Amino acid sequence: MSLRKVALISAGSTSYGKSLLTGRDLALLAAKEALERIEMMPYEIQGAFIANAFGLSERQGHLGPLIMSGLGIPDIPASTIEAACSSGGSAFREAYINIAAGVYDVMLVVGTEKISHLSTEVATTYFTFGSDYLFEGACGASFPGLYATMAIAHMQKYETTQEQLAQVAVKNHENGMKNEKAHLHKRISVEDVLQSSIVAYPLKMYDSCPFSDGAAAVILASEDYLKKNGRDESISILGSGRAGGYGSLHSRDDMTSIRSSILASREAFNRANLSIKDVDFAEVHDCFTIAEIIAMEDLGFVERGKAAQAVEQGRTRLDGDIPINPSGGLKSKGHPIGATGIGQVVEVFEQLTENAGERQIKGAKIGMTHNVGATGGSSAVHIFTRS
Ligand SMILES: CC(C)(COP(=O)(O)OP(=O)(O)OC[C@H]1O[C@@H](n2cnc3c(N)ncnc32)[C@H](O)[C@@H]1OP(=O)(O)O)[C@@H](O)C(=O)NCCC(=O)NCCS
Fold first, then answer.
1. What is the rounded CA–CA span in Å between residue 383 and residue 172?
2. Pick from 90, 94, 105, 89: nearest CA to 345
3. Quick one: pLDDT at residue 2?
């Protein structure tokens, strides 16, 4: 089946952090920002996907009709996509497929999460529902604990050190300082990371993303529709990939890699007819510092076991040869679960339209997003270019 060309035409986002608003209201703010940015009336939207993982903690499911009603378009179909931390990337992928297949011409994708009404202990418990709960969460394994297990495996296999992990956090906090919408605005040192409280050995507080509220929204359209309506294409979506993987760590042969990331990126690059060498920057899933190291190796930015050195050499900084997480990533920008994957696309939009301010990567033409569900039960990868 031949797919139609799909463009990313607008993006909007709330600030990430602690909010008194509901997930629904955060979603409306992000969606309105995306619509207003291109002076698009809500009635031009033909369908929507909502990324949300923990709405039930607010006692609110079925968010789609509420968000569409809030936009004044209650007749428009909107379904919620839940894929743990990759809900956003998965919802984006569904909208891409719907437009590429010719079902719709214009779609809205909104990711939202509200979690700050829960204590750290309760939120940690809720999040374990995204693991293999019977074998992991119910036995006491939290997400920090599961990623700590992966970190230990990586340290044993490749001699990765805690100092090298800390450098990922230092770099992402540095980038987050340049992002006014980031959750954590704090410049930190390797020493700060090493001395922060242990969450699950070897991961410490500054190795971890925070619990964030927030929402992000993007608008996709077929290039046919844009031509017919005299609108700019802005950004083209060159490749989309999505893959599944074992939902539990104990089912895997190797804990130093996430197979769904490898498969999703392979699909995205095949569809785009590009290779990782063509990518100018990436927003990758750094829920913990070790996750960024593993992502760099799975996506092929560096050889296996070489990511930590690349970070140490400054190669992933904004002025390095492979800038990673210019937004500050999940680590500093924050991780409002449902919004995260869409927020990554928002950053790509800002970079490729040269609206990223102080964190602008000069001359960036091709950007990618990488969004992982839980410890890798699913992943989504997308590749974009400026038109
Ligand atoms: C690291 C963690 C345990 C800290 O929780 P906590 O000790 O209850 O921290 P609090 O929310 O009380 O915040 C205390 C301070 O630390 C800061 N803080 C919280 N989490 C932080 C983090 N991850 N990194 C840096 N600073 C953090 C807060 O901003 C706050 O600062 P302030 O006092 O200046 O306002 C918690 O953020 C966590 O579990 N993160 C991982 C979330 C997760 O598993 N997500 C799913 C990934 S798959």
1. 21
2. 89
3. 87
Query: Is the minimum distance from the CB of 199 to ligand 1 under 6 angstroms?
Result: yes
Q: Is 301 in the pocket of ligand 1 (CB under 6 A)?
A: no
Token output for 317: 């900084």
Assess whether 85 carries a catalytic annotation: yes
From the CA of 187, how far away is ligand 1's center (Å)?
Answer: 15
Annotated active-site residue 335? The verdict is yes
Closest CA relative to residue 330, chosen from 78, 118, 147: 147
The domain segmentation of the chain, as residue ranges, is: 6-118+211-228
How far, in Å, is the centroid of ligand 1 from the Cα of 227?
A: 46
Six-digit token pair at 85? 């931390």
pLDDT (tens digit, 9 = 90+) per residue, 86-105? 999 999 999 999 999 999 99
Catalytic, out of 85, 154, 370, 382: 85
- Residue 103 to residue 96: CA distance in whole angstroms: 10
Q: What is the band of 159 on the pLDDT scale with cuts at 50, 70, 90?
A: very high
Percent of the chain at pLDDT > 90 equals 98
Architecture category of domain 6-118+211-228 in CATH = 3-Layer(aba) Sandwich (3.40)
Q: What is the largest CA-CA distance in the chain?
A: 58
* Ligand 1 atom nearest to CA at 287: 47
Which residue's C-alpha comes closest to atom 9 of ligand 1? 120
- In short, whether 371's Cβ falls inside 6 Å of ligand 1 is no
**Cβ contacts of 228 within 8 Å, gap of 6 or more:** none
Whole-number Å distance between alpha carbons of 267 and 31: 29
- From the list 92, 12, 16, the residue with the least C-alpha distance to 330 is 16
From atom 32 of ligand 1, which residue's Cα is the shortest distance away? Answer: 184
